[in-house]
Amino acid sequence: MPHTNCITLTIDTVLSQESNHERGRPTKAEELQIERKLRSYFAQGFSASYVSQQTGYNIKTILKHYSKFKKEILESENPDFIQRCIEEKEKTLYVYDNLIYNLYEDRAEIEKLIEVSKKLGNIPQAERLYKLKLKITEDIANLVSAKINLTNTATAGDTAKLIRGNNNDTKSDKMETIP
Fold this sequence. Notes:
By secondary structure, the chain is mostly helical. 81% of the residues lie in helices and 0% in strands.
């Protein structure tokens, strides 16, 4: 029985030390809290020295976590991830095409209704339809602009190549020579 009391006393001492932990290496729970806090600073692009001043954490601790976060990002840029990005971009471009096509059809229908309203002498109706036609035209322009922006946006694979400094796309590196 004397060993049982000793073991209980030792466990209680360890537990009380964990709850009053102030110096040395952080506990797993504290490490997780630190990581969560630093991840938000990292995501916002704050430098390690600034975060150290704001949080009071050692700059080496912050740099260790920043390296871990950067590694996670680079590992997410595997071929499967890059392929998913390309496929999502293609799907979105298809959706834009479909929306634009439908808006053009709607505008053509509105133009027919405007002509009918004019022939019937219903000028207020024709004016409302004309305003709707202008709104549809504006929506078409906005969607075309968004589609162009998406088309010209680099994929994750393109961005990763640029960051790493290697570009295997030989077509864009060579200029056409005129004989």
